[in-house]
Specification:
Helix content: 40-55%
Bound molecules: flavin mononucleotide
Structural class: alpha/beta
Number of helices: 13
CATH class of the largest domain: Alpha Beta
CATH topology of the largest domain: TIM Barrel
Number of domains: 2
Length: 330
């Protein structure tokens, strides 16, 4: 159901903690273009969570690990204890997970201090140990992938870390083209991704700083990859995934809605499970507009930033749009 394989291009919605939650995954999925989505990370530290806790974290698991529109979801785990991660993966599969991703890239200091995320990039043999423990615990039909940064500090560390993930049995790896110390500062370095892709037998997904169709073409040229993961740009420019999908020869029907008002309204509907906490939906929409307006001119954003309720927010968006005209996405 989820597979990344040679000859079949894949476009993947990146995991983004606090951003690509279930409603956002549902929205991005129903608009088409993405092959599958990866969940925000689930951190495994002390006790291995109960299966029902895992199911709450990724509500799609109850729907055969699919969004309401049928796009598959891969659950991501983060941690440093191979045994606990393997047990968590087994429990996730028992409640419907169809593929597991392992996070070796998170740069958050609290995560890294607690032996998780990018910290593991300093210990290549532990990457192999974790991937192989999770792989061994699951049926062969469940893919296990690893998401890596280029290294902790040194770009070249990607080679050993990627080799270890492959040796551990990863079905594919995703490489975010930056080290942990580079954080999110542009540029992303795509060439090392291409070097790894050229050497390894398993598929390599390229990730980082693909904001435009032109970026995508340059990333494809640099990496030689046919698999790509989009994070911030998927939200900043919801039309981009379709442009890239077309370029990759994937079938990508034109989405029904192409303006911000319709998108926001639909997102609010998909946030229905959070209806008892309307501030959640409001914060998420403001966050989304902030991300989009950081990259693209959206003239009316400042006029909706201060609204305190969903009603006020939508009234302000409508008013702003009636003055400035329709608000097409980029
Ligand atoms: C707010 C935010 C949250 C993120 N959370 C995760 C996460 O939970 N798991 C993960 O593997 N990567 C996470 N990432 C990294 C992204 O998946 C991606 O690798 C990174 O943003 C680079 O891709 P982009 O330039 O397309 O955004 C996060 C990034 C951002 C900006």
């Amino acid at each position: 159901m989820i597979q990344v394989s040679r000859g079949t291009p894949a476009l993947i919605l990146a995991p983004m903690e606090g951003v690509t939650d279930a409603p956002m995954r549902a929205l991005m999925a129903e608009r088409g273009g993405f092959s599958f989505c990866v969940s925000e990370f689930f951190r495994i530290s002390q006790d291995v969570p109960y299966a029902r806790t895992i199911a709450q974290h990724v509500p799609e698991l109850a729907n055969r690990s699919r969004t309401p529109s049928g796009v598959p979801i891969q659950i991501q785990f983060l941690g440093g204890d191979a045994f606990k991660l393997a047990e968590a993966a087994v429990r996730a599969v028992s409640v419907g997970a169809c593929a597991i991703d392992l996070n070796f890239g998170c740069p958050a200091p609290t995560v890294n201090r607690n032996d998780g995320g990018a910290t593991l990039l300093k210990y290549p043999h532990r990457i192999r140990e974790i991937v192989s423990a999770v792989r061994a615990a699951l049926p062969a039909t469940i893919p296990v992938s690893a998401k890596l940064r280029l290294g902790w500090e040194a770009v070249d560390d990607i080679h050993q870390n990627a080799d270890m993930a492959a040796e551990g049995g990863a079905s594919w790896i995703t490489i975010h083209g930056r080290t942990k110390t580079q954080g999110y500062t542009p540029p992303a370095y795509w060439d090392p991704i291409g070097e790894v892709r050229g050497r390894l037998a398993i598929p390599v997904v390229a990730n980082g700083e693909i904001w435009t169709l032109d970026d995508f073409r340059r990333c494809r040229d640099a990496t030689g990859s046919e698999h790509f993961m989009l994070g911030r740009s998927a939200l900043a420019n919801p039309a981009l995934v379709h442009q890239i999908a077309r370029e990759l020869g994937m079938i990508s029907p034109a989405p029904a809605s192409t303006d911000w008002y319709t998108l926001l309204e639909r997102f609010a509907v998909l946030c229905e499970p959070y209806a008892d906490n309307p501030q959640y939906t409001l914060c998420r929409m403001k966050q989304w507009l902030r991300m989009a307006s950081n990259r693209h001119e959206i003239s009316w954003v400042s006029s909706v930033r201060t609204q305190q309720t969903l009603e006020e927010f939508f009234t302000a968006v409508r008013a702003a749009i009636s003055v400035s005209g329709p608000a097409p996405i980029q």
